[in-house]
Amino acid sequence: MAVTTSSVAGIVSGRNPLEYEASAPWTLFLFQVILITAMCQILHYPLKKLRQPRVIAEVLSGIILGPSVMGRIPKFTATCFPPVSKPGLSLVANVGIILFLFIIGMEVDLKFVRKNYRSALSVGLINMAIPFALGCGIAKGLYSQYRQGNEDMPPIEFTTYMVFIAVAMCVTAFPVLARILVELNLIGDKIGTIVLSAGIINDLTGWILLALVVSLANSGSGVNTVYILLLTVAWFFFLAYPVRYALKYYYKRFTNEMVTGEPSHMSMVLLIGLVFTSAFYTDIIGVHPIFGAFMVGVLVPRDNGYVIRVTEKLEDIVHIVMIPVYFVIAGLGVNLGDLNHGIDWAYTIGIIALAMVGKVAGGLIAAKMNGLYWRESLAVGVLMSCKGIVEIVVLNVGLNAEIISERVYSMFIVMTLITTFLTTPLALWVYPQSYRERNHKSKENSDETALLRTQEEISVENFQDVRFSAVVLLLNNIDTIPQLMLLLKNLQTSKENYQINAIHLRELTTRTSHLLEASSKDEANFGTNDHDQGKFTSIMAIFTAFSSILNMKSSIKSILTPVDSYAVTAIEQIGSKSDLLLSSIPASSLTHSPEGIEIIENQYKQLFSRCWANVGVLITSQVGTWDQKKTVHCVLNHNNFLSSSDLLCLNIVSSLAKTYPSIHVHVSSSTGTTKEFEHQFDGQLKSSGPNVDLTVSYFKDFNDLISTSSRKELDTAQRMFVLPYDFAECAEVLRMSRLGQQVSYDDILVVKSHSEHSQ
């Protein structure tokens, strides 16, 4: 083939870089990838604020770049997406979708389904049956209007067409569904368990039905269809037994990967080779290559997070380049201009309505059968109505197999975008965080050990009634672990040795490996990259060492959650309102950038405003130390009347008095000395430990206390302040922490009783 000078010299010799040349097809391809990626990122940025999945931005990018919008610009399509360039884009897109279905297969946890098989089968199948039946109904009209007698497409049996339309109506996008559950903090909830297990059943059933439809469309007779299905089933069993056992033998005999969870280069070669081999086989027998890739993904070992590490190796190139190209091509095939008759939009609205009503009703009925409340059942139905990625793949398979026309394809794409867009806001509306918190509170016994008295009924002696059933310890900073553990050791008495459940929160990103870990029910959660894993391993090692030295009953786990949901996720680990949620903040972090301070302040405020149990935040000025403090300062509010949070402060100070016998109580009072209070303090706190040295002083307001501290009249060296949140809210604590760094007192413990949330 002759190569012209202009094609070698490029734009310098006057070559048009967007002119397609068979000898250099990559030039236009690279431009197309740049354009597609940029458009997807631009659209995803505002949609991300609305908690919308990336697939919406990718399909919308295709619609905008296609004939519906920018394709109306003269020569835009002929220049940027000429027909001769489509095979190159399609090749990359189809390789990407094969790898993507392999990743989706790895998300399917069959052990989790077996553990929850009753709810999984009932919700999954009923949720499919109702929209499937509705799809069969509307398929008759679509077939008569758009398919029967269409001379531009090969003839097809109505039964094949009907099953495809029904499948397109009833599928649920499991990858998008799992991410929505994680972002809404529903993974650990009963709803999350039901929806996740039902979504897996829905996903598996949908792919099986789609394989049936494709085989029906590709086979020349019913006998051929039976042969295709038998060959597919035989291949699955071949992968499930000989191949899977051979892989396990290889891993155990020749590698250490099931222990480390880290796939080697050779293992990745074997897996990718197996994926393409399986895809090739299912393609040549007349199904579709994506089914072969999906089968291999389902059968990859899940030991020690192995599927998470395999996903990490693949997901970047797949999700950044290949999948956007695939979904943009899907969007390019949508021409809203073809929907130019009233009947077209009538069918579009009908498809949207039936898809939503069918999925919501199916989920509602099935969830109610499993014992959920009406509102929870409705939330299950709304979540199961999510379409997204899987629906787009199904529609593309149907379009390429010439089962549906481009006009019907456009209708279903519109339905997919609308139903996927509505899932998150509808779920938040039907099942908001406030309802979940109220529902959790209503299940608690109102006469638990914590105080539920009115302010007038509370006296100093009542602090002895405060009990903690367990402690939820939020560990996000290695430096503050010594102070937290020492505080907990001093709070425990010989009669109380409560369980300490430590959690380490990590930011949930858009990575599929994070989604796999977050949706996993395995309690042994580790970080999915070297930095995450190293940090959590260090925190776990330090916490475990301290727990062993101090003889504490403890457990620790790592949880992935969005940054703005840190507080909510921590609160959801609470089992009872008599629990204590304890967190820590290094005082130095409150003097950093304004953005960092704002994030910490928001988390601080959310912990105190939303937590329905006892909560405490330890602000440490001297991180990484374990000094034996000599004096504990207790600040009480309410102008001679004690609140429940004041009593929580006194309870903590009473426990600390066994180790730190020097106690100084500061009482907010506009009238000065109150002998009655002093006698109560003298009688109750002095009995807390041997040789307790008690001092009581009075102040008028917060500024009075701060000015006293700044003059060092409190003898602040190696001191600890314990104060109620209703006295010193975020701004005041920020001032105190900065003062603490100046005058060198160590810690500030801010607490709030759960009774304050009930009043």
Keywords:
Na+/H+ antiporter like fold, 759 residues, 10 strands, alpha/beta, single chain, 10-stranded mixed beta sheet
Amount of beta strand: 5-15%
Low-confidence stretches: 445-458, 523-528
Main sheet properties: 10 strands, mixed
User: What would you report as the Rg, rounded to the nearest angstrom?
Assistant: 31 Å
**Residue-averaged pLDDT:** 81
Query: At the third CATH level, what is the topology name of the largest domain?
Result: Na+/H+ antiporter like fold
CATH class category name of the largest domain: Mainly Alpha
- Which architecture of the largest domain would the CATH scheme give at its second level? Up-down Bundle
* Helical percentage: 55-70%
Count of strand segments: 10
End-to-end CA span: 85 Å
Q: Which outline best applies?
A: elongated
| Category from helices, strands and their pairing | alpha/beta
Number of domains: 2
Secondary structure tally, helices: 30
Can you describe what's shown?
- The protein is built from 30 helices and ten strands.
- With 759 residues, the chain is of the alpha/beta class.
- The protein has two domains: 17-220 and 320-434, Na+/H+ antiporter like fold, CATH 1.20.1530; 466-483 and 508-539 and 562-751, no CATH class.
- The chain has a ten-stranded mixed sheet, with helices on both faces.
- β1 (470-474), α21 and β2 (499-507) form a beta-alpha-beta unit.
- The N and C termini lie far apart (85 Å).
- Residues 35-425 form the Cation/H+ exchanger transmembrane domain.
- The chain crosses the membrane at residues 24-43, 55-73, 88-108, 120-143, 163-182, 194-214, 226-247, 268-297, 317-336, 345-366, 378-399, 411-431.
- Its main location: membrane.
